[in-house]
Structure prediction request, 273 residues.
Amino acid sequence: MEEKEIDFIKIFIDCLKIIKKRFRLVVGFTAVCAVIAIIYSFTFLPVTYESTAIIEPAKINNVAVETVQIAEFFFKNPLNPYLKEIASELGMKEKEAYALSFRFKIMDKLGYMQIIGKGSTPEEAKKLTDILISMILKRQEKLAKNALEISENEMTNLKEQFLSVKAELEKIDKTLYQKESASTQGQGYVFQGLIQLKENALKRQLDLEARIKSKEMDMKYFTKTASVVAEPTLPILKSGPSKLITAINYTFSGLFLALVLAFIIEFFKKYPI
Prediction:
């Protein structure tokens, strides 16, 4: 059985015939969609402004206390209290809080946190960004405090180990002094064993001392609190959407629907149910 070749030229010509036959329908439907699109875009389409700020996150041992991705997850997740708190600050109802997640972004910019707040007015966009900055700084401060407590506990533990090794060395030195005048072979072996214990203790003491100094340097010089690098300002230009582009997009969508409708009508006319 020979396979039939698809004649694309014939199909294209048939489509043109259908469009010509239903030309009034296609043009009329598209025109109606264009009018509706223009009215909606230039009358009802909401205008959006964006206010941007930059935050340097808090760092412990030169490492950020929280990644930008985790911060955005917590602030946008409805299960966390942040959205409700933002809504309360904006004077919105609690049920409106869930829509707020679409009105702001927290992005990573070369290790900094970029905060973008959106609003229907410049003032609204800036207010949302200001609220986000305040909440993020409070959260960063809390995270940094918790991280510092952990580092301080580690430091305390290291110092306790250092004092323990120091006491151990003093005890070994005292025993060595007592055994120093030993002349028997057995006492000589004990003396050698004590020397080895002292060397091991000294190594541990030097290691702990180096770790304590490193930890002190990290906590003193590589620990930073979160700060605002670039304050949010009142946006002057609209961030979108473009009313003209929106109207054009809706018009072309109407044209596509009109063509589909024309083909459907022609199909059912040719093959009635």
